[in-house]
Amino acid sequence: MKQLVAIIIFILISFHALAQRDAANWYFGNFAGLDFNSGVPAVIDDGALDTTEGCSAISDKDTGEILFYTEGTTIWNRNNDVMLNGTDLLGSLSSTQSAVIVPLPGSDSIFYVFTTDEVQAYQNTGMGNGINYSIVSMLGDGGLGEVIEKNTNLLVEGSEKISVVETDDGINYWIVTHFQDTFYAYLLDSTGVVNTPGVSPMISTIGPNIDDFENFRGAMKIAPNGSRLAISHCLFEPSLGGLAYLYDFDNATGVVDNQLLISDDLVYYGVEFSSDSSKLYFSGKTVNSQGESDRIIIEQYDLNEPSIVGSRYTVLDLENGLLSDLAGGLQIAMNRKIYHALPGINISVINNPKLVGPSVNFSENSVGLGFRSSSFGLPQYIQSFFESFITIDNICENDETVFTVDPNANVTAALWDFGDPASGADNTSTAINPTHSFTEAGLYTVTVTFEFSDRVPKTFVEFVQIIPLIDLPEAVVFTQCDIDGMDDGRSVFNLVDFANAEFETNNLLYRFYNSLEDAQLDQDPIVSPTTYLNDFNGEVVYLVIGDDQSCNNIIEVTLDVSVNPAGTNFTYELCDILLSKQDVWAALQNLGDVILENFSDGSTVEFYLTLDDVVVQVNQLTLGTVPHSLIALDFLSVYYIVSNSADCLAIGEVTFEILLGVEEENKDVNFCTSDGGLALVTDNEYASYQWSTGETTPSIIVDEAGSYNVAVESLEGCTGNIQFNVTETEIFDISIEVSDFQQYNSIIVTPSNTSIDLLYSIDGGVTSQTNGNFTGLVPKYYNLLVRDLEGCNAYNEIILIRGAPRYFTPNNDGTHDFWHVNEAVNYQGLEVTIFDRFGKLLYAMGHNDRGWDGTYGGVLMPTNAYWYRINYEGAEYYGHFTLIRR
Questions:
Q1: How many Å apart are CA 48 and CA 30, to the nearest integer?
Q2: What is the pLDDT of residue 324?
Q3: CB atoms within 10 A of CB 762
Q4: Are the beta carbons of 556 and 697 closer than 8 angstroms?
Q5: Chain mean position to CA 696
Q6: Beta pairing, strands 648-659 & 570-575
Q7: What is the 3-state secondary structure (H, E, C) of 497-533?
Q8: What per-residue confidence (pLDDT) applies to 744?
Q9: DSSP state of 13
Q10: Which has the closest alpha carbon to 175: 190, 159, 164, 191?
Q11: 659 FRET partner, CA 20 to 30 A, in 174, 186, 195, 613?
Q12: Chain-centre distance of CA 505, in angstroms?
């Protein structure tokens, strides 16, 4: 009975423990955001924060819903509105670590917002703002939060550095900052910031004296387990340089000691620890012979090695494309990955930061931010949020996954929830080191609450990716353009983009190796798979999908180089008033049509700002969207690449010629007479409008068909005319051509009696396109919907695409042992014949046949491609499939 009572008490305690979703939402950069609640970052596109460097956010620890966020001067609530009394904080959006949000111990509604100093304050006034805190109550403003105390000073002068970690008992927090040669550790307990000499702040004078305010930049982080402290000094005076130091930190007393100079080779900026506190990462920039910052570097140091300095490994060595001397911030997330931010529409990620060397699997610019962009900083959090001392093994589908807790963590009891409700009673466990058989492949959120012998209970969230037994081909071919036009068989391959396009694998990791042995042993992966230069045409590399090489997920990739003819370089005329990003993108869309006039149907064109981007096909200029970094037309040319499904056809450069005059195409519009009127709308950027109806507004309402002209004049003197040709919406007819029983099926819809534009959809209108060509369709039912742009008329039909398997594996394992048309039993009268590649008849069958077993005359046919002919309802269909022997 005593044991039962103990378990019940533990369960009750665990409900009140930290659920570790406080850092689930990131708001950073230029209105960018990411939601980590699922373990895979999802874009947040409604944020109001715009910062150059530092920021912080806090979410509900149980639900993961955002509470509020800040860049050090303003606080926004969960509705993305400025919080009540949430302005004029003394932080700065241009401070490395401008702010960090800390909950008051013992409270679910009170939060402290600590803000740091900034270099610019000293530059402008000679005095800094120091280190300050403000207090937020989530009980204010109807639960949206209110700042109830603002800018209480802790340190008169300070640097741009701050980090927070739990005290050794897991109850309170140390808030640590740095100024000149001194660390200040402030204790935050349930009463607030403690100001007792000898207790808080705990003052540790150690390290170099950074006394020039121009050198206050750079980050500082405490290890998630509270044992170490690392600091970056980004030095601007008297010359460009940097210092990276590592210290011991005592999270019982707040003392910083045992200094170790890690390096002075780079202009150091960002710093971060792995979740198990065993690896340390710095970001920095090299300094060239002219004393200017150059390449961007990320370094790893193994804190378990006897020589930490000697364990240095270069994770990233990137050519500098930025004017800034800052190398970009590093920040660990709740999925235990470390992210790296530089200005742009993507950020990079260290996927396995606990591992050593190339196994960290750095993925450059792999996390998209939608239509928003990052800058140099990422959100700052309490470092203890990311602590992890759990090792997870056996993650292939159908494996018994093993969870092992570090014995040094002093865990005395555990309550596990594996996030797998389909497993029934097995979904929970009270074992400290449990095992669990997940019911299917996928990403699981595992929650565990631990009791400790030396601190209060704490809940941890771990994301476990169970690797599916993926049905993948053993070998594929990746064809790339030879950008320089020389027939040398070499080109640059973006292997990651290829894998994403070729395989749909639920956000699994991709790693590439130069040999099968390396792939099997997970050693020496290709360091830069997004910019891989092959040695010769036909070179083979090996792709591993997922975290575990034992999951039958190694694929041979042959790198094929296609030598393309040089495309035509030409000029494209633009009016100078069109130098806004929206108009430039519209011009590029028209430009694409011009280029494709010289190529066959099925060809596509893509645009890039640099030839390097064309080579690896990154940073594509997406038509119809506006990258945040493009403030105006700050380029005078673009590069284009034309390709089809198999080959690169041409690469060329388009130079813009800036001309006077408004150049807008005439517009054909349709309307429903039953609506009573139609708005004719022009851009509202012109200085004047003169319609043929006499009106002078940017838009007018018309109620009958006809031609309407508007003369426009811009502020810069560009003039022109826009013709609107208004017609009533017609009743349209269409013809539908279905091609199925193929490897690549299609539905082709052709309008027969209308000239108006139509929208075509095969998912009932969820997504639409402006042409009726739907290709590469998999066998299933499709809900065809065709309608005019005004929604006056629509045609709807359910269409079945019939199919045939692309391969089969007749090895008597009960899966894919026979080849036949999909759902053949439903096609009475069906006749199927199978041939080898020389036309020899191997097998014939009807709709009730079980299918071909891969034999001929009792002999096993080898792995190869085979052809089929289908006769059904008076029509013949041809195709091929692959027999795979395993």
A1: 9
A2: 86
A3: 22
A4: no
A5: 46
A6: parallel
A7: HHHHHHCCCCCCCEEEECCHHHHHHCCCCCCCHHHEE
A8: 77
A9: H
A10: 164
A11: 613
A12: 15
pLDDT digits (tens, 9 = 90+) for 781-812: 889 888 877 777 788 888 888 888 888 899 88
C-alpha–C-alpha distance, residues 383 and 221, integer Å: 8
Highest-confidence segment of 5-9, 389-393, 510-514, 742-746: 389-393
Reported as a pLDDT band with limits 50, 70 and 90, residue 203 is very high
* pTM exceeding 0.90: no
Average pLDDT over residues 503-523: 75
- The phi-psi region of residue 798 (left if phi > 0; otherwise alpha if psi is between -120 and 50; otherwise beta) is beta
Distance CA(865)–CA(876), nearest Å, equals 20
The answer to whether 245 touches 260, Cβ cutoff 8 Å, is yes
Cα distances from 620 to residues 345, 585, 627, 836, in angstroms, run 11, 12, 10, 43
pLDDT of residue 247: 97
On whether the CB atoms of residues 71 and 99 are closer than 8 A, the answer is yes
- Say which DSSP state 447 is in: E
User: What is the per-residue pLDDT for 627?
Assistant: 43
SS3 118: coil
Q: Note whether 437 and 470 are within 8 A (CB).
A: no
Comparing 504-508, 515-519, 690-694, which segment has the lowest mean pLDDT? 504-508
**Beta 66-70 vs 637-643: how paired, if at all?**
unpaired
Could you report the per-residue pLDDT of 573-600, keeping only the tens digit for each? 665 544 444 455 555 667 778 888 877 7
What distance in Å separates the CA atoms of residue 359 and residue 843, rounded to the nearest whole number?
49
- The tokens describing 691, both together, are 């319609």
Helices and strands (DSSP H and E) totals, the chain:
6, 62
Calpha distance 515→166 (Å, rounded): 45
DSSP 585: H
Instruction: For the chain, give the longest Cα–Cα distance.
Output: 94
Looking at the DSSP bridge assignments, the partners of residue 449 are: 415, 459
257 with 246: CB under 8 angstroms? no
Residue 13 structure tokens: 């305690």
Q: Over 70: is that where the pLDDT of 633 sits?
A: no
**Type of residue at 439:** T
Residues 392-409: tens digit of each pLDDT: 888 888 889 999 999 988
d(CA 449, CA 451): 7
474 three-class SS = coil
437-to-71, 318, 402, 413, 424 alpha-carbon distances in Å = 43, 42, 9, 21, 11
> How do residues 703-756 score in pLDDT, each as one tens digit?
888 888 888 775 444 567 788 888 777 777 888 888 888 777 888 988 887 667
Six-digit token pair at 283? 């970001």
Least confident of 228-237, 461-470, 508-517, 653-662: 653-662
Q: Considering only residues 664 and 638, tell me which one the structure prediction assigns the higher pLDDT.
A: 638
Q: In percent, how much of the chain has pLDDT > 70?
A: 87
Is residue 827 within 8 Å of residue 872, measured between CB atoms?
yes
Kindly report the number of other CB atoms within 10 A of residue 310's CB atom.
Answer: 9
**In sequence order, which residues have a C-beta less than 8 Å from that of residue 207 and are 6 or more positions away?**
181, 231, 245, 247, 259
- Tell whether omega for the bond before 238 is within 30 degrees of 0, i.e. cis: yes
* Token output for 436: 């669990």
* Amino acid (1-letter code) at residue 756: I
Own/partner long-range contacts of 121-129 (Cβ < 8 Å, ≥24 apart)? 121/92, 122/213, 122/216, 123/213, 123/214, 127/157, 128/156, 128/157, 128/158, 128/213, 129/90, 129/91, 129/92
The candidate with the shortest Cα–Cα distance to 383, out of 191, 163, 122, 556, is: 163
SS3 label, residue 784: strand
Share of residues in the chain with pLDDT > 90 (%):
41
**Cα–Cα separations (whole angstroms), residue 224 to 165, 189, 332, 431:** 7, 19, 10, 24
pLDDT exceeds cutoff 90 at 684: no
